[in-house]
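Final report, closing paragraph on structural work. Over the funding period we assembled a curated collection of sequence-structure pairs, and we close with a single example.
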Amino acid sequence: MTERRPIIAGNWKMHKDHLEAIQLVQRLAYHLDESDYEGQDIVVAPPFVALRSIQTLIDSDRLPLALGAQNCHWEAEGAFTGEVSAAMLARLDVAYVICGHSERRALFGETDEIVNRKVKAVQKQHLRPIVCVGETLEERQAGRAEEVVVGQLRGSLAGVKVVDPEELVLAYEPVWAIGTGETATKEDAQELCAAIRAELAELYDDATAEAVRIQYGGSVKPGNIRELMGEPDIDGALVGGASLNSDDFALIVGWRR
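Its predicted structure, as stored:
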């Protein structure tokens, strides 16, 4: 069995200006020790306006954190007012880009095709996409959770090549559990993450499926991270609200303690 490196990512969404972002990372670094960084990747994804400030802080303080962005456009440049390209993010030493978060899909009309174009743009700049998939409450209640998730996966990864499986991260985020305080049971989360891994084997091969990391996202807290990480197909967490609190996020990052 492939030993997959855990990955914990904090998605700050539209919170924290650049000064607040600096303070949050400084407090987070204070709470963590060397053992928390060892053997896993820790990602922070602030708003665009704070990326430069956090990149400078990570470099100057030599923090073992990876910088993530919450979104990007699929074109490298052009007349796209208000957009940011993967090429621009690459110049800021961004390592990961979240693609297809449920809020992007629901609030901004992003389809699987759009997500697919963004994933390819991210890969072209040698950045790592975190590709999000997940079902709504109505879809789950209708017994369509796996169908929806697998369909989103196929559409989002259509024509996407995976040369190094560590360069691709997937995030299963049940829409009904995001920001609601509701969390999928560890069994429910494992079932869908296993279905994602099985579909990866169909799209690519068994070795790729076994090596790609799959996160769970949806009201992850210090109180549930350890049991989620104990499931065989869950390799990390995409953390929303709890990542805005340095104490809580440090406890999540330190889940192995």
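The chain has one domain: 7-253. The two ends are 24 Å apart (CA to CA). We thank the funder for supporting this effort.
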